[in-house]
Amino acid sequence: MEISIAAVCGLCLLFCVGGFLASYIYFRRKIVDFTDEVCESAQEILRQSQGLRKGSRETALRESQGYARRWQLKNQDTLTSKAVMELDKLERILSRQAAQNQSEKEEVQKVVSEISHQLKTPVSNIRMYQDMLDDEEVTEEEKKRFEKIIRQQLDKLEFLVESLIHSSRLEQEMIHLTLVEKPIFQTLAKAVGGIAAAAEKKKIELRVDCPKSLKVVHDVKWTAEAVENILDNAVKYTPEKGEVSLLVKEGEMYTKIQIEDTGKGIAPEHYNDIFKRFYREKTSGQEEGLGLGLYLARRIISLQGGYIMVESKLGKGSRFEILLPNKKEER
């Protein structure tokens, strides 16, 4: 009986061990197969990943090339558009400038025509009163009156001729500069000489303060005319027994020519207008002029690399400052 139990126990143990071994072998095979599949899957994924990366690089390269091309075309289109816009803008500017130049030229020609026509009147009057002076029946008192009228007509004739010359210069661009280093005192003396008689007639005190030895590189003739034009305005709009002063100072970069008067003054909103061609204030109707003097003065000075500034107070007077560059001769 005991043998039978031991045999049974042995058989049971044998079956258990055998079953365990069989299970172990079975599951081991499954694990190996699973591991192989995992490895194969991993290798496939790796291959696909490498191919994908290669494809991505090629795709990215193609996309970047396409983007570069599109950017180039877009940029080219933008540059072309900008060029067209700039050309259109330039065309508009040139058209406006041409129209303005044509308008100014027509205006100058009109003024020249009007002055030429007005020249006939004083010439006719002078001839008429000259004939009347030759009449033996004319009294001494009448002779004096006729002579006074003739002088007035000569003044008017002189003014019209000067205006005609100024207008002609503007139309023909006759301002040609010759810059030389010379004492500015001599140039200013010429300018003052041109308005001295008019100032004396109105009993206006003229004061000049300028170092005789101060030399400035400038065009003598044209600078004298520019200064005289400003002085002429100062005398013209300064009341009797007023003052007009001319002061010269040398600075580091510019030599300043300051012209100051005790005239009626200029409103601040007209500081720029007074330098425009043919500009005349409404209140200046009693004074003769075409509005060319200050325009010419600024043009002459600017052609020499200088500029003109103005400061004024209504009822008190005006101050014009001409600044000419201190150009040194090269050594």
From TrEMBL:
Gene3D superfamilies given in the database record? 1.10.287.130, Histidine kinase-like ATPase, C-terminal domain
Q: DNA repair among the record's keywords? A: no
In terms of PROSITE patterns, this protein maps to: HIS_KIN
UniProt keyword Kinase present:
yes
| Any single GO CC term annotated in Swiss-Prot or TrEMBL for this entry | plasma membrane
Histidine kinase domain location is: 114-328
Subcellular localization: Membrane
**Which UniProt keywords are present, listed alphabetically?**
Kinase, Phosphoprotein, Transferase, Two-component regulatory system
InterPro entries, from UniProt? BphY/WalK/GraS-like, HATPase_C_sf, HATPase_dom, His_kinase_dom, HisK_dim/P_dom, HisK_dim/P_sf, Sig_transdc_His_kin-like_C
Show the catalytic activity: ATP + protein L-histidine = ADP + protein N-phospho-L-histidine
Q: Enumerate the Pfam families for this protein.
A: HATPase_c (PF02518), HisKA (PF00512)
Annotated GO molecular function terms are:
phosphoprotein phosphatase activity; phosphorelay sensor kinase activity
EC?
A: 2.7.13.3
GO-annotated biological processes: cellular response to phosphate starvation
Q: Which domain of life is it from?
A: Bacteria
Q: What is its main location?
A: membrane
Database matches in PANTHER family = PHOSPHATE REGULON SENSOR PROTEIN PHOR
This one is known as histidine kinase
Q: Which organism is it from?
A: Dorea phocaeensis
